[in-house]
Design brief:
heterodimer, A: alpha/beta, 11 helices, B: alpha/beta, 6-stranded mixed sheet, 4-stranded antiparallel sheet, 10 helices
Chain lengths: ~500, ~250
């Protein structure tokens, strides 16, 4: 097949080397010694001025971690990670306490500028269909808790949030300032005895975000954090804890990019969400870690544990993610549907190109009565990448009337990539209704030529078809993010033209 | 100077020669019919003119307004005004017809150094053209060709032709799968497009379309070459006597 071969050749030229965000910011850093031991854990805890209970918690997690080995069930392959050859803590040296965003190191601000991330204002974005409800979102404010190399360096909109009673701060501060809340909830969704990477994170996490929304409060703005790895050889261990108290509502946006480098970088974040009665949490992610170069060298290893607990009756947790980066993605944002009538949602776009490996999906645990979950996953594989959807839906014996609907679509670009769907379904209750739909399709030579004959470049054609494929999920993102995500998607599929 | 000139065109697919020295001259304003039996290379000609991948031109040339067309990428050819109405238009789920049309038209305009149409300007233009072709607005909001009937797909091709205003329109079996009413609408759309500086190449098996869109020149293809050209009478002769005589001539 001459035609098929030509497509394959063109796709082979998709350049992941063109990674746009490969630049470094020079900032003096303050590192923990290489390697992991109880001393490393103590160093981090001391660095953070943590109370004794927090150190104890970390040490406990570290001891759990020692008893476990890395999981191997995922469809990803990578060289053995030497956990003693990693720095577990690095922070930019604070010059002084920062009072406002103007005081951030101009180097750091420049980095954000290059990324095109608006720190102070929300761009009014074109070409994105506004979500139902209309245009008012265009002027919506976003509070940015900027995480730069493990330490939050700026927090904005603090006053307005305070007025509403919302607590939004680096988790390191929350440990000191709101120990009662942190102690009550930390590790209750992802315990320190959880999986290998979660245990590691619990022992050495450096920082992350903490959010508490009091009863009945609708958080007045989108909460957003931009993560960015900047220090060579530094593992990133972010820890996020979000609690939505009774009848409250919060939307949290997380996005990240990373500079180009050769060594593999380990990233093992943990995110815990707790929604009490009638509360709702919407958690959105745009992930763009460095994926490695065109030989598959370098790139981030992204082992993430994200889990939400719909603890209260009629609570709701919704995960929306756009995954474009990382050499390896191991990530299953999940919902524990504990409260009766609670609802979990998972909307995902996972794009893999070059030598990227994605093993991602969700887990929906139906424990309460009349709980429901809704899953839409769109996987796009190009280059020589591997893209696996792995999803679990389970209904407990008491979960009468549990319902799940899963749609899982894969799109292949070229003929050297692979897409796999691995659904696990466990229904221990006969009244549960689970539905699963899966499709796999290919951007065919005919579709591309049709678009190109109409005047589009190959890049425009691929982008158009891909955007059509993912539209359903893209629309679930807050509008600011939808546009950023669209940009990322076209960047990550760029260079598909011969 | 002819609008399109194909000289001694030899084309291979997967090492097998399909066109064996084809000649064709289309002057500005002319409507040509290309007829011939299955496998005579009619569709191949349309694909090679538009630059579909998978064909190797081993000899000959194609000149468009005197310019070497084979040196241009397929999207550049489209921007120059070469349009192919596909025999089997593809479906593109999730991409609305309106979005598709706008992306395509603006890409062409950009390639020609023109500014892109603003959304309101474009919408107005697209709606006007759609109305002329009896295409409901709702169709423009649906995914490109998704769930369209055969007739709707063909009308959508004519809609694009009318919107892009190309100077060379190649219609590959635009009449296939159409009932008589749909054929009439499509033919009216084509006739409305005919002008002194726009040419048509209609690839068809049947005389039927040519009753509605009367060609200036009828070309008969057989075994990868144009073996006879004549006026519209030739199509009627073919209808009566079939292609067999040309099979032997080739």
């Amino acid at each position: 097949m001459v035609a098929a071969q030509e497509t394959a050749e063109r796709v082979a030229r998709i350049g992941v080397d063109q990674y746009r965000y490969g630049f470094e910011t020079l900032i003096e850093s303050d590192k923990a010694p290489k390697g992991l031991s109880e001393d490393t854990v103590r160093f981090i805890s001391a660095k953070k001025n943590e109370p004794a209970w927090m150190l104890e918690w970390r040490l406990q997690a570290y001891r759990y971690w020692l008893t476990m080995t890395e999981p191997t069930w995922a469809r990803v392959h990578y060289p053995q990670i030497d956990y003693q050859d990693i720095y577990y803590y690095a922070a930019p040296k604070p010059k002084k306490q920062l009072a406002s965003i103007d005081e951030i190191d101009p180097e750091i601000l420049k980095t954000y500028e290059k990324l095109g991330i608006p720190l102070r204002e929300v761009a009014i974005l074109e070409d994105v269909e506004p979500p139902p409800g209309g245009e008012q979102t265009a002027n919506r404010k976003i509070a940015v808790d900027a995480v730069f190399d493990s330490v939050s360096v700026a927090t904005t909109f603090k006053a307005e949030l305070k007025k509403a009673g919302v607590i939004f701060m680096p988790i390191s501060e929350a440990i000191r300032e709101h120990p009662e809340l942190v102690q009550k909830y930390l590790g209750t969704v992802v315990p320190i005895s959880d999986n290998f990477f979660a245990r590691l994170n619990s022992a050495v996490f450096s920082d992350g975000s903490f959010v508490y929304v009091p009863p009945g409060v609708r958080c007045p703005m989108e909460l957003s954090t931009y993560f960015r790895i900047n220090e060579r050889n530094t593992g990133q261990f972010e820890r996020t804890l979000i609690i939505a108290d009774r009848g409250s509502h919060v939307s949290y946006l997380e996005g990240c990019t990373a500079p180009q480098r050769d060594e593999n970088q380990l990233h093992a974040a943990v995110v815990e969400l707790v929604a009490l009665d009638d509360a709702e949490i919407k958690y959105s992610t745009v992930q763009n870690w460095y994926p490695g170069n065109s030989e598959g060298k370098g790139g981030i290893y992204n082992f993430v544990t994200k889990r939400g607990d719909c603890r209260g009756r009629n609570s709701k947790i919704s995960w929306t993610q756009v995954e474009t980066g990382s050499a390896i993605t191991w990530k299953y944002p999940s919902c524990i549907l504990r409260g009766d009538y609670s609802r979990g949602e998972f909307y995902s776009i996972a794009i893999s190109n070059g030598f990227q490996q994605v093993d991602s999906g969700t887990k929906m645990f139906h424990l309460g009565k009349n709980t429901s979950s809704w899953v839409i996953s769109k996987g796009i594989a190009a280059g020589k990448s591997r893209n696996t959807y792995r999803g679990l839906v389970s209904a407990n014996r008491n979960a009468a009337g549990a319902r799940n609907h899963t749609t899982c679509d894969s799109l292949l670009i070229g003929d050297k990539c692979g897409a796999h769907t691995v659904p696990y379904v466990e229904a221990k209750n006969s009244s549960a209704t689970f539905e699963h739909e899966a499709t796999t399709s290919k951007i065919s030579e005919d579709v591309l030529f049709y678009c190109i004959q109409r005047g589009m470049s190959q890049e425009e054609a691929v982008s158009l078809v891909v955007n059509g494929f993912i539209k359903e999920v893209l629309q679930k993102l807050p509008m600011e993010f939808a546009a950023e995500a669209q940009k990322l998607i076209s960047i990550s599929l760029e260079g598909s033209v011969g | 100077m002819p609008l399109l000139e194909v000289r001694n065109l030899h084309v291979c697919v997967e090492g097998r020669e399909i066109l064996h020295g084809l000649d064709l001259t289309v002057n500005a304003g002319e409507a040509h019919a290309i007829m011939g039996p299955n496998g005579s290379g009619k569709s191949t000609l349309g694909h090679v003119i538009t630059g579909k991948p998978g064909y190797q031109v081993t000899a000959g040339q194609i000149l468009f307004k005197g310019e070497d067309l084979l040196a241009l990428a397929p999207d550049q050819r489209a921007a120059k005004g070469i349009f192919l109405a596909f025999q089997y238009p593809v479906e593109i789920p999730g991409v609305t017809t309106m979005n598709f049309l706008r992306t395509a038209l603006n890409a062409q305009r950009k390639a020609r150094g023109q500014s892109g149409y603003s959304t309101p300007h474009f919408l107005k233009k697209a709606r006007t053209v759609a109305k002329q072709l009896n295409i409901p607005q709702s169709m423009l909001k649906r995914g490109v060709n998704v769930g369209f009937s055969g007739g709707e797909k063909k009308r959508n091709e004519i809609l694009q032709m009318a919107l892009f205003e190309p100077s060379m329109c190649i219609l590959d079996e635009i009449d296939s799968g159409l009932d008589i009413d749909a054929l009439r609408i499509v033919a009216e759309g084509i006739n409305a497009m005919r002008s002194q500086d726009r040419s048509m190449i209609m690839i068809t098996h049947y005389q039927r379309l040519l009753n509605y869109v009367v060609p200036d020149v009828v070309n008969v293809m057989s075994k990868g070459r144009v073996v006879k050209s004549g006026d519209k009478q030739l199509a009627l002769e073919l209808e009566a006597s079939g292609y067999a005589q040309f099979e032997n001539a080739a």
